[in-house]
Amino acid sequence: xxxxxxxxxxxxxxxxNPAFVVSIVIILSFYTFMGxxxxxxxxxxxxxxxxxxxxxxxxxxxxxxxEALKILNxxxxxxxxxxxxxxxxxxxxxxxxxxxxVENITSNGTVRLRTYVSVSxxxxxxxxxxxxxxxxxxxxxxxAIVFTYGNIHNVTLPxxxxxxxxxxxxxxxxxxxxxxxNTIVSFASFAPLLVGLMMGIxxxxxxxxxxxxxxxxxxxxxxxxxxxxxxxxxAKIIASITASIINGLVLLIALxxxxxxxxxxxxxxxxxxxxxxYESLENISFTNTILVLLFSLVIxxxxxxxxxxxxxxxxxxxxxxxxxxxxxxxxxMGFSLIPLFMGxxxxxxxxxxxxxxxxxxxxxxxxxxxxxNLSYFAIGIASSIxxxxxxxxxxxxxxxxxxxxxxxxxxxKKIPVSRDSH
Amino acid sequence: MLQSSGxxxxxxxxxxxxxxxxxxxxxxxxxxSFTVYENEIYGLIxxxxxxxxxxxxxxxxxxxxxxxxVLVYGVSVVKNPIEARKLINYLPEEAGAYRDLSxxxxxxxxxxxRFKGRLLEEAVSEAIELTGLDTDLKKPIRTYSxxxxxxxxxxxxxxxxxxxxxxxxPTSGLDVExxxxxxxxxxxxxxxxxxxxxxxxxxxxxVEYVCDRVGVxxxxxxxxxxxxxDLKSKTGxxxxxxxxxxxxxxxxxxx
Lengths: 422, 255
Fold this sequence. Notes:
The structure holds two protein chains of two kinds. By secondary structure, chain A is an alpha/beta fold. Chain A has two domains: 52-171, abc type-2 transporter like fold (3-Layer(aba) Sandwich), CATH 3.40.1710.10; 178-406, no CATH class. Chain A is 68% helix and 9% strand. Chain A is built from 15 helices and six strands. In chain A, strands 2-1-3-4-5-6 form a six-stranded mixed sheet. In chain A, helix 3 links the parallel strand 1 and strand 2 (77-81). The longest helix of chain A has 40 residues, at 229-268. Chain B is α/β, with parallel strands linked by helices. Chain B has a single domain, classed as Rossmann fold. Chain B has nine helices and eleven strands. Chain B has helices at residues 52-59, 81-87, 103-112, 117-131, 146-158, 176-193, 204-210, 228-235, 240-250, and strands spanning 3-4, 10-21, 27-37, 41-45, 67-72, 75-76, 88-91, 164-168, 196-201, 213-218, 221-227. Chain B has a six-stranded mixed sheet, sandwiched between helices. In chain B, strands 1, 2, 3, 5 and 6 form a five-stranded antiparallel sheet that branches. The longest helix of chain B is centred in the C-terminal third of the chain and has 18 residues, at 176-193. The interface between A and B is large, with 29 and 47 residues.
């Protein structure tokens, strides 16, 4: 009975808190929007593949292979190229059939195929959808070859052969080893999440250190001292950043160690050397990437620190600050997920958006470097700095308003009454 | 620029047609005007919701008025809040202190916002002496009683010897002994250091004991102002509580 009373009181404290309701609405709205973005990205990736052609390069013309491809052409849109490079701009995937391909199959040997998967962004989902598309095509091709062989030779071909693929990604018309591509994309995906996580922690710190002064009842004394509000705000932002950096240092070291481990892995691969080397992408500088990650972290921490101060300024107490910071943290994490699922090629508009979100800056840098167009990254940096400065200005502005003392009041009734304590 | 009345008395505080309407339409104060002269202790009295805290917060530069102005020794708190803050200090109702700090660290921190070097050390020593807390000052503030926190906060504002000291319910929630200590300190700094004091209180006895003049606030309006003796004479009352009750009854319905 006593416990149920205690529990009821705690639950009521949350459920009756308008900030809790607001946070639920924010989370629901934001992640519904995120869901739409993600599903649009997934749908786009799948539809692109469904509509797209698959390119084939045949190094050794063979009747059985040609016949099998004719059968598949009823289901797939197949284009024949003389070299993989010819199809880079047209087909989402290109498969190279080497000399002796059919002979190896009919003798139940192992066949190695080179495949090229075109991608327009550093997006694992899109890449994997296209790899799956190739695998499905190869499965269908195997069946078609068995069928064609049986028709021509009037015998049933025992299925004992094995087809292995050596995939390369094609980005901006240049090839990149699949393992390196996976590493780059993994890093480009993970780095924004790290920044988003740190920003969430930092926003929580800065809102708490602002709101706790109200609980401690020392806030109004501080505001009446002859110091500018700007200095108070900046001190709070810098203090929260320091705390967050200390907190996140271990995480960052772990990330670097993880990145280093992946680089080692790349050196051990590939299992097969590419048969032909087309214009390959240079490896992204690990040092530069880490520097960009650190830069985005700093910008992100200032950004989230300012947002935390704004939240701390407008609430009455620490509990409400905590409730409102939770959706903020989830939104930062959500910002990190957008480039992973959007699957769109980066444009000037998207660069501005990524700069506003801050978390995808590392992704933007890696994309810009790989595509050889650093202007996207420059736009993103300018956009993030502008957003960051705007948020600092906004936090100072809020700190100079009545709301910092009175707190945010959500009121639906306008009854003019005389009142004293606010 | 110092403001002076015709009789040569310096106006420490001049509140001019002050109105504060909060977002949502609730009225804090309405067309409020009064003046506090240098070296005076002026008390604002009135029931809950009469506009006392709103008035003090505007004077302390925490809130911005909807209209009107406040001049502290001629400096507008609206147009030049930083300059105004150099002339004032403010002790809010139920003022606390940072729980993670010791009493001594809190005193040092707050005073470091106004003083440096030797002046800071002198102010800190003076505040330590005022509190009378000795070794307790080294303990974390979270272990302090309400009275201890109040005296620490009061000491940090008194030793700055501001031109105008604003105190919101300075003895609210304190026991008799602490209340007497606080009142004596206020009077001492007013008398010995020429600190002009504006305070609000529900405690009429306290106001009678401490203040030279009072302003009576009711529903955001100043319904009477004057020395305690004058107000008693005008209303035929024997004490300030009676003055307030009679004034309140005389206010027309719908005021």
